[in-house]
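Working notes for the structural subgroup meeting. M.R. asked for a predicted model of this chain before we commit to crystallization trials. I am recording the input and output together here so anyone reviewing the notebook later can reproduce the run.

Input as submitted:
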Amino acid sequence: MNALRQRSRSIPSLKIMGSFFLLLGHIAFCTFVCLTPSVAQGQSAILMMVHDEAGQPVSQVEARLKRNGADVRAGVTDDKGKLVFPCIAAGEYELTVSKAGFEPLAQSVSCDSTATTAEIEFTMIPKIERVEKVEVQASASVEGEQTSSTATTLNPQDVKSLPSRPATVTDTLPLVPGVVRGPDGEIKIEGAGEHRSALVVNSTDVTDPTTGRFGLSVPVDSVESIDVYKTPFLAEYGRFTSGVVSVETRRGGEKWHFELNDPLPGVRIYSWHLRGLRDFTPRVTFGGPLLKNRLYFHEGLEYALSKTPVRTLPFPYNISKSESVNSFSQFDYVFSPTHFLTGTYHLAPQHTNFVNLGFFSPQPVTPNFQASSDVYTLADHLALGQNLLTSTVSVQSFDASTGAQGNAAMVLMPTGDRGNYYLSRQQDASRVEWLEALVRSIPTPKGTHTLKFGTTVSRTNNNGDLAARSVTIQDAAGRRLRQIDFTAGRPFHRTDVETGVFGQDHWTVLRNLALDFGVRTESQDLSHSLRFAPRVGFAWQPFEKGTTVVRGGYGIYYDRVPLSVFSFGSYPEQIITSYGPTGNVIDGPRRYINMIETVSGKRFMFVRARTHPGNFAPYSTAWQIEAEHIFSPKVQVRVNYLVNQSGGIVVLNSQVVRKKDALVLSGRGESRYRQLEFTTVLTPRAGQKLFLSYVHSEAQGDLNDFSRYLGEFPSPVVQPNQFSALPGDLPDRFLAWGFFPLPWKMQIAPIVEYHTGFAYAAVNAARNYVGVPYSDRFRYPKFFSADTRLSKDVKVNDKYSLRFSLSVLNTTNHFNALDVHANTGDPQYGLFFGNYQRLFRGDFDVLF
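Returned structure, recorded in token form:
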């Protein structure tokens, strides 16, 4: 239950040296916990031995020891496929094992009060739905995966124990190096927005076809694994230029399981008085066999009511209220060991009042947002000898509306905006997609070839209309500087068909060398373009033990163009009038027509496009080199360097076309991203894990990306385009998180994050840029946060247990500014303000 919030005085930003001392203290404490012996001599234990069907030991198998449905121990097998679990106490336990590419297994085991060792043996059976993910192992020793395309993998069961308590897939992504949540709340991968990345659930694209954004993603309780690829050199991945988030969902197990998280509401304490609900976020997860060995069911259901306080506004006018339901259901029917069918349904309605509430946008100026998405998928998996055929059909619908708090004109001032939000929008979109994929492994005298071929066809629709009211820009004295009026927009309807065909070969040339070759072709009817994307990669184990892997590759990628781009011609057009100091008209009124450019002249060599408005083909060329070394099952280190160059990005510019003023969508934008990453994963003992990463990066590009003006909450002011650092640019970021068991069935899970402050754009009273926007000159103070969650399991009876938790957020009470006076016409220009102070939060879960 979310409970008390401690109020304390705001303190100045801690010195960097003090932050590092605190960080070292956190790491020292975690190290102490790691090295503390957790097993007493003479205690009974469980010896687990894991091997494959050929009798070879299987390393890096994740094992969990459960009692009454709750985890009491966790760990991974060593290079001999062995793992020892000391028993907490005499009684019955359940031992589960899992590893990517294999069927999960479970077995009951008993511990007695004597100092004996129970031996349990598991035989891992390959999963037919994971045949396409081939792991080549040079020996029985611990070694890295021999593939050119590696991902950062998040285990939902691990991240759920962290103080951030992620509820959806999107909530977990900031735990990945190179992925951050920007000041606007949007996920940034490689410094770019969500519309340049792909979100696939069970191989199905689930991004909003109108905006390209992720929306309300799958509940984390329904997820088996989350893989984040920055540069996958496999041709099966498409429709992105920045990154891929690939999600695999959970199947119901052989036994029924039920879990209830956060069942009680959190209350708000203000000035030591109860002021109603703060939030209410119960989550229910259950699943099991409906027909033994045939039909399985799993359900993840979340209701979320959140009243988020904004520290830069006074109570009670500082609350942004959101309400949502997030349900994911999955059925799996097993016809035979080589044939099964999976059906899923994702329902996600949501509603938010006072979106983007802040000091400069108080409640009357903010919009309301309502959206709903329904996603149905049906996938058939059939193994035919050495072939695996997967057929998937997906039907999706997306509805969204944006409205204002009233009908007053919007007024933009240096000290804060007034009136009501200027735009109202109603739109709905849909996608029907069909995918086919065939995988075949062919042994030859010159190595094994794992071939994969596939096709995808999707039809998308977008319908809607927009209406806009006048926007006035004033200086601090209330003098009018500019007036933006709008014409009436027209209802729009756009239909698009996207196709893709790919082929790839994972060739194991030698015991220690594998190569990836592939090509993908994509077409999009509305863009009148055909695109070719060749990719190549390698994985090399230079030493005989196979504990070091060097990987690299080069690939070409293409973005989908969201349907909002092609609807731009139906949007309301701007009529702009500029005024002098005495209120006299000095320019205008000028009407800017909405235009979509026809890209002509020399284009990217792998693009073929007709001469037609909107013939866009956003692309990127990326290469990466990486070295990974596994010192032991307890220590794994990875270093990589990535370069991503993008072109053909759709941007909005104000210009004169055939003697007419126009706002033109063109395909001439560019961006570049460079990243150096160091990552270490420590698993010193069973149930212990520490993830450490440092990323040095640079993200630059054209600022007038179309999403800034055609997104869900567009800006009414179109500023001159510039090439500069992107809003998601973070030169330096350090992240550490993990979890460690403590005595008395307790666990501690810390998160420590330190990064360069986000950049912002300084503007004058007329909303024109001052200096170079988002440069190092205009950055927030450095960010530092140390959060901790302490939990304890209490057994109620043989059927269920309670898990009590206490989280401390921003433990050091560090000043992390929430906003800045960035307008030169503001008397407080340059002042940073707002901070989320130290917060105590209690909750509990029910485990059946």
